Amino acid sequence: MRICEVGPRDGLQNQDRHFSIDERVDLIDRLIATRPAAVEAVSFVNDRRVPRMAGAEEILGRIARSDGVDIAALVMNGRGVQRALNCDLDEIRFAVSATDEFNLRNVNAPVSATVEDFAANAAAIIGAGVRLTAIIAVSFGCPFSGVVEPAAVIELVGQLAEAGAQEILLADTIGCGVPNQVRELLDGVAAVAPGIPRGVHLHNTRNTGYANAVAAIESGATTLDSSVGGLGGCPFAPNATGNIATEDLCYLLRNSGYATGVQLPELLGVVDWLRSLVPDEISGQLGQAGLFPEVARSH
């Protein structure tokens, strides 16, 4: 199972505490050492609108890379792509919203314009040897438009697949989805984009994130996004709380027989370090409860 650690990006972008560039580099280096398949390290967005993400180029120039751990960045338009292609990246994750209202608030453009932007930049990204992942925000529900019809999401998947997406992730940006919706949408992705890997980006706002992760795996997802400590939130989505916690997810997967490559003891060390910086923001449970059966053996 491919775990993409999004803590340095999604986890920090909406934090009250400002993490310095030195601290962000330190966090990324610590997470790389835990051996996830990928780390979403930065986003190339407007620094004025998302000041917590300023300094992406400097951060990518300073982190300690490791074979086997891909470094990914989030972009939302062609300007972000051009910045990203000037850096050393393994993966570019291009976000497109499932609703016009959310897309307008996010990038000041309708969905159709962002799809055109995606298509216009796909060849350059792939030609540079960088993996192109399409992330569909608010796939399960929008804070402004309400219920999102599955047919609209599947139509968008088809457009992005035709435009060159090498992977497609469905994002539950506001944490409103439930397992049967996850299964339905992922089955729809497989139908319109056969052969393209699929995955999910889950928030745990309504405590359904882990059940949704299991449903996603059972429906053929090969990538799961998660955030160390359960940090996260979206500056453009009111009440969107943290992502599913990487440590809790990887414990669930490990004890269910799935290999992730993530070194859980080392990851819990990162959680402890983060707790010293943002003690009230850690929602993951494993850091408090400990691994089992390891805990049982220690007593």
Automatic annotation (TrEMBL):
Q: Which UniProt keywords apply?
A: Lyase, Metal-binding
Q: Which SUPFAM superfamilies match?
A: Aldolase
Keyword Lyase on entry: yes
Q: What Gene Ontology molecular function terms does this protein carry?
A: hydroxymethylglutaryl-CoA lyase activity; metal ion binding
What residues does the Pyruvate carboxyltransferase domain cover? 1-268
Top-level taxonomic group: Bacteria
- DNA damage as a keyword of this entry, yes or no, is no
Its source organism is Antrihabitans stalactiti
- What family does the database annotate? Belongs to the HMG-CoA lyase family.
| Name under which the protein is recorded | Hydroxymethylglutaryl-CoA lyase
The record's InterPro entries line, in alphabetical order, gives: Aldolase_TIM, HMGL, PYR_CT
GO BP, sorted A to Z: ketone body biosynthetic process; L-leucine catabolic process
